[in-house]
Amino acid sequence: MKLKKLLVLLLTSSMAVGLAACGSPAKSESVSEAGGDKAQDVVMWYYWENEGHQKALNEMLDKYNTSQSSYKMTAKYVPFADFKKQLSIGASASELPDLVLLDSPDHASYASMGIFSDLTGKFDISTYYDGPAASCSIDGKLYGVPFGSNCLALYYNTDMFKKAGIENPPATWDELKDAAEKLTSGTVSGFAFCSLQNEEGTFNFMPWVWSTGTGSYEINSEGGIKALKYVKSLVDDGVMSKECINWTQGDVMNQFISGNVAMMINGPWQIPTMKQEAPDLKWDVTLIPRDKEYASDLGGENYAVIAGGNEAGALDFLSFATQPEQVSYMMNVMGYISADKEIAKTQFTSDEEKVYRKFIEEMDYTKARGPLADWPSVSDAISLAFNQVMTGAAEPEGAAADAQATIDSIVSK
């Protein structure tokens, strides 16, 4: 990624107190344009719970910090469940970081609040995939830079498949349920996916809705209700544990590698950890089984610079972090697909990495949530609906109707 030469004009001490959007966080002492003994602090928030991801990020930050002396980058972990709340609270209390790595569907919401700096003309994103690029943009203006992309697919334990006499991975909903029934026994559940009542859960649920041919804002429809009924049947028939409403994607992975789950929906970012923690586990990946059509959910994060923070320092870091060498390092370690198509072409070319290629194939069926400024509120309504259905607190028709009422009030604004 090439940062425009205009960036040089931004690297002045005045940017540390630049645009006042939602207040500026406290900063360390500034250094002069020519350098100085004290580097300016630049703080980034992220929500990755995976230790491997955290380690890779810290290593990249260390490389950046040793490559120059004007800024010192540090990263703070904020749990995913608290990330939106902390960002909103920080905005009102003037206690925001300088840079954030946030879930791509949330980007439009915070950009519309004026929290993020306008980066239009400062980065060349012409080689980026349309979906990730669009998630950073509002009304033709760029309010962030895609970090990396991913999607969801179906993992399955090949040893368990052989033992159960299942020759091929399921390709349809009926085949998935049939396989899950054959694989469920004792402490082993046939199937699992993260069903938390938050964006992480919505991320995993939306492929079921889209597979029926239904749009994101049409939950109270034949397809939306069908998706809710299908998920309910998996729980009611005992092939998927109700505990999925308490499991993060990392928890689902741990259940899978521990042998407690035979099939799971998850993303490519889990592969490095799985290979390290369970090297003898036999598994493979296939497309998420379909109803009417294949579907998956576009995931990944975006960088966003906080307006009024240390914008110069954040931009200087991004000029480093978006270079091919750094992008390739982070994508390969984390199991992500680069949002830059040119870099993505260089990924997963060896036989040892062939499992990743199924996710690249899945990208052909991947949809994005939003981009919509009020997507977080839409997501809350959807995750509440499938949680109520899975716990038996509501029937699919009632949950869908309630969710639709909320969604309509948001989308019609």
Write structural notes for this entry.
The protein is an alpha/beta fold and 413 residues long. It has helices at 7-10, 51-67, 80-93, 107-112, 130-135, 158-164, 173-183, 199-211, 222-236, 249-257, 271-277, 311-321, 324-334, 341-344, 357-362, 375-391, 396-411; strands at 40-46, 71-77, 99-103, 137-138, 141-142, 145-150, 153-157, 263-266, 283-286, 296-297, 299-305, 366-367. A 5-stranded mixed sheet has the order 2-1-3-11-6. Strands 8-7-9 form a 3-stranded antiparallel sheet. Helix 8 packs across helix 16 (375-391) and helix 16 (375-391) packs antiparallel against helix 17 (396-411). The model is unreliable at 1-35 (pLDDT under 50).
Query: Topology as H/E string?
Result: HEHEHEHHEEEEHHHHHEHEEEHHHHEHH
> How many individual helices?
17
Please report which band the strand proportion falls in: under 5%, 5-15%, 15-25%, 25-35%, 35-45% or over 45%. 5-15%
| Shape descriptor | globular
**Overall pLDDT level:** 89
Q: What structural class is derived from the secondary structure elements?
A: alpha/beta
Number of strands: 12
Global Rg: 22 Å
Distance between the termini: 37 Å
Physical arrangement of strands within the biggest beta sheet: 2-1-3-11-6
